[in-house]
Amino acid sequence: MEGILFMTEKQTQKLTSSELGMLWSSFIENTASKCFLKYGLSIVEDVEIKEVIKYAFDLSNKNIMQIKSIFENEKIPVPYGFSDSDVNVNAPRLYSDSFLCRYIEFMGRTGEVTYSLAHSTSARKDIRDLFRSYLFESATLFDKAADLLLKKGIFVRSPYIAYPTKNEYVEKENFLAGFLGEKRPLTAIEITHLATNIESNAVGTSFLMGFAQVATSKEVKKYLSKGLEIGKKHIEILAAVLKNDNTASPQTWDGSVPESTVSPFSDKLMLQLILTMNALSLGNYGTSLGGSPRRDIGLHYVRFIGEIGNYANDGTEIMITHGWMEKPPHTVDRQKIIKQN
């Protein structure tokens, strides 16, 4: 599907707000990912992992060019995004090869969620075709990374549980309870959300540990350090829920960070990557809340959403203060126009 050419015919239908918003966000995220992947290519030593990183890099670069072409055809300003000025490929190693591969797997999973929404909220056929191709490529990227992690024995699996032996209906009211008295065993879906959130937080804390170590601004360094503590706390709480159910937590991987203090990335890029993870965390926790009937687990997710929401707001304020945040497409400020006249 990489060979598909979009916008080959003149379009008479303008982009909808959904199409414009998803294209704009995808452009920003792809330029940020491209910078991180460019650094990854400069430090990776494992030949097989390098091939997967190169595949991801080429996808990001292609996506940027395709979305840029659409904006130019629609006469929409192309966002600035991120560029070579935001990455230093000569900086010392900050992450292990295994973590880089794990990040690619995370990218693929994130792309599957993001582009599924983008495809399902688009009307124009060329835009639906575009996002469908991105969805397919994200699934392929995930598979490539997952297969390699499995081959190397470092894929993070969800916990195993015993197969059910019969079908049953829920009878006791304590199916929803969780604060006082007897707590029922976790359901497979609840375990899925718990394990996935532990895994995602593990990726985030590794990111934050490295970023906090090399950030040049004290304000940014403090912000990243705060995020690291939040991520660790969330992992601890979620792992305790599994432990109390006598269910094993997902095994972690090599998330260690070398002692380098030379930053491969601009503070602006690091904040953008973390803000993206914040948005994904909010979405993951919201989905987990809906899939976790036990009230004690739901309460954890409600609290996590509040904490991540406040943390994301703090990061956004730093971006705005430093003039690093591009304004996304928005409606016309009618009140401002009225006041001007």
Task: Explain this structure.
InterPro entries: DUF3231, Ferritin-like. This is DUF3231 family protein. It holds the Pfam family DUF3231. This protein has 341 residues and is mainly alpha-helical. The protein has helices at 17-43, 47-73, 97-120, 125-151, 188-214, 218-244, 267-290, 295-321, 334-340. The chain has 2 domains: 17-151, Ferritin (Up-down Bundle), CATH 1.20.1260; 179-321, Ferritin. The chain has 9 helices and no strands. The longest helix has 27 residues, at 17-43. The relative contact order is 0.12. The model is unreliable at 1-5 (pLDDT under 50).
Essential attributes:
single chain; 341 residues; mainly alpha; Ferritin; 2 domains; 9 helices; disordered N terminus; Ferritin-like; DUF3231
| First and last CA, distance | 51 Å
Overall pLDDT: 91
Number of helices: 9
Question: What is the annotated CATH architecture of the largest domain?
Answer: Up-down Bundle
Helix content: 55-70%
Q: What is the H-and-E element order?
A: HHHHHHHHH
* CATH-assigned fold name of the largest domain: Ferritin
Tell me the domain tally.
2
- Uncertain runs are 1-5
**Strand residue content:** under 5%
Main sheet properties? none
Radius of gyration: 22 Å
**CATH structural class of the largest domain:** Mainly Alpha
Q: Would you identify the CATH H-level superfamily of the largest domain?
A: Ferritin, core subunit, four-helix bundle
Query: What would the principal axes of the Cα set say about the shape?
Result: globular
Find the count of extended strands (DSSP E, 2+ residues): 0
Structural class: mainly alpha
InterPro entries: DUF3231, Ferritin-like
Protein name: DUF3231 family protein
